[in-house]
Every structure is written in C-alpha cells, then in structure tokens.
Amino acid sequence: MLKWLIKFGGYTTILRVIAIGVSLAFVSALSLWMPKDDYGLLAMVVSVATLAAAIAGFGQAELAVREVAPLVARKDTEQAQAYLHEAYGLVLAVSVLTGAAIGAYFLVAGYSALVAGSAGAITALLGINLVLSGAARSQDRYFLAFAPKDILWRGAAILATGALFFGGFSTTIDIVAPLCAVVLLVIVGGQAARLSFSPRKLLGSFGRSFGGERMGAGAALMFSAVALTAMNTIDVFLVGERMSPTVAAEYFPANRIALMCGFFLLPMQMVIMPRIAVMMRENDLPGVRKLFTYATLLIGAASIVTGAVLVFAYPLYAPLFGTASGATREALTILVAGYAIGGLLGLPGIILITAKRQKLLASVNIGCALCAVAALFLVTGTGDLSAVAYTVAGFELLRKILIALSAYFAADVAPFSLSSFTKTRVS
Description:
- The protein folds into two domains: 14-210, no CATH class; 213-418, no CATH class.
- 48% of the residues are buried.
- By secondary structure, it is mainly α.
- The chain has helices at residues 2-33, 36-56, 60-73, 77-108, 113-138, 142-166, 173-194, 199-205, 212-242, 245-258, 265-281, 285-312, 314-317, 326-343, 348-354, 358-380, 385-411.
- Its main location: membrane.
C-alpha cells in the first residue's frame, strides 16, 4: 500500500509541478504579448471565472469520486455512467446559469460583449471541467483529471496567443479572451469525449439530475469550498482596506508563498480519495485507517520539509518580490508554521465526505471562516501585521483540528491510527 501511495502520489505531484510551470509561463508570456491594461483585464476575467467555477461545479466532483469509485471497483460500468451523466446534467445547468450571471456582470460593468461573453463561457466551462475531473479521479485516470485545465488549456492558450503576437496580429483583450474560451471549449470537449460522455444519455438522465440528496450534498460542498477560499484570501483584502495598500503589498507575498506548504495536498487527495471511498463502501475501516495513516505521514513530512525550505531559503527568492520586506519574512514564518503543523493532520475532510458527513465539514469550514473574518477585522485595526499572520495561522490550524476531531467522532478515523498495523493473533 505504501509503495502504491508513493508511486501514484509521486506521479500526481509531477503533474502538479508541470501545472505550476505552465501557469507561470501563462502569466509571464501573456503579460509580455498583450497590452498592459488588456492583460490586467484578462487576469481579472480568469480570476473571477476560477472563483465562480467553484459555485458552478456545485460540489459534484467530490460526490462523483465518492459514489462512482465503488461502482468502478465492482466493474459496474452501467451504473457508474448513469450516475456521472446525472451529475453532468446538474453541473451543466448550474454552470450555464453561473456563467450567464458572470457575463451579465461584466456587461453591466461596461465591458465589451466579447469580454463579457468570454468571461461567462470560461466560467461555465471551468465548472463543467470540475465534474469531469471528478469523474476521471473516480477511475484513477490522473492525467485526465489534472491535465486538461491546468496544463493543456493554459499551454494551448500560450501557443495560440504567441502565434498571434509573432504573426503580427492583434493581441487585445477582445481577441485573446474569446480565444481562451474557444481553446477551453475544445479541451473540455476532448476531456468529455475521453470519459465516454454521451449527449443522448445526458438527455435521458437530465430529469434525475436534480435529486434531493445530490442537491443537498452538492450545496454543502459548494459552500464549504467558498468558505475555504474566503479563509485563504480575505486577510489580504482586510489588510489593504484597514491598514494600507502598502502593508498589503508587503503581506501578499507571504500569503501566497505560505500556501505552498500545502503543495502536496492536492496530489495526495487525488490518489487516496477514490480508494478510501471504496473502502468506506465496503466497511473496511482497518484499511481506511492504514491508508489514511500512510497518507498523513507523507503529507506531514512533505509539509514540514517544504515549510523549512520556504523559510530558510527566503533570502534567495525575496528579490523576486519587489514589495518584500522584513515584515514579509516575519509574517511568512508565522503562516508557514501554521500550515506546516496543520499538514501533520493530513486530509480529514476526505473522511467526512466519503462517510457522507459533508454537512458537518461545511459547518466547520463556514464557522471557522466567519470567526476568522471577524477576528481579522478586529486585528487589522491594530496595525500589527504579525498579529494578522498569527490570526490566520491560528484559525487555519483550528480548522484542521476541528475537522480531524469531527472525522474521528463521526467516522472513527484519526489522522494516525497505528493500531491498524498490528496483526491480530488467531488462536
């Protein structure tokens, strides 16, 4: 089991590294090839679309993994495809509505119809990509789960925009934004085709896409994701609003760099969640505890090592950030400590989702997010940046502890379950 975990965890980590490289290339290349104001608008469109996609996806990616992985393990392809097409129908409807709302916002805000339409299309397609990625994860098709959006889309957008730039054509926002939308449509369409998506099956299952359990569980996971996103971003906003934009400029690099402590979380989640979903369905709690303990050990070790590198190598990469200062390093050290210690608790949220306790997970995330926002509102009024960092790190660690305790009491699975390794003697 450990060798399997290291093998596929390493494979998905390599995909993550490639994705980060392509993302940096996307940012760098388009910033050079597009007019400055147009590039800024494209960055805003992609950022808003990415955040809105969390709503458009409606939590169906995690539900697809939880429900379909056991069907795949039993080789019940017919039922697996039936469930996925029902999920596709729900996400398609929510994504179109969310995309239309985002497009309408940009249109009312005074942007061109091309920009507004592109923003709406990118939002809807990213939402659809989420459920397709969940379908791929449920079948252990890691490349198909990770690569379409994070590698192939951005890579193709770089090549297409580069062809326009070096060919002497316009690279304004009215050209590049629709181009990005078209490229994403092709990529997501190919992803759907590889996952045996059938328009005929979609039409046949569309009426069952809005079942009560799927809607309730999806809404819980959606609000949970929104709360988690808020916890990772609201601190920068409040620092800028209640302290000063200059202080926010010093704090922002620390905020972004510290999140790298969780670099290994997503690859590991992609690997272990389908297997845990199968074990949970089979009531194999000893197997769940053993796999979860291995994953926690790997995640914890990776978080500590990554955190140490980020802190001690700071003087080497600090010159890359023009606004970095001594306050940045102090805040970074505090934030990294919180995230690294939290890494020792692994991924207890997976246990709650696979145990069908997603509402409990949402309650913890939403509660912590609301309390963190209230605390940060008070702390930013003091003007102490270190206090802000301690508040963020403290609430993140508290969130992880509460989720781990919830997983233990709700599903009898702790981050470390060393008793699962002991052999039972048969007399």
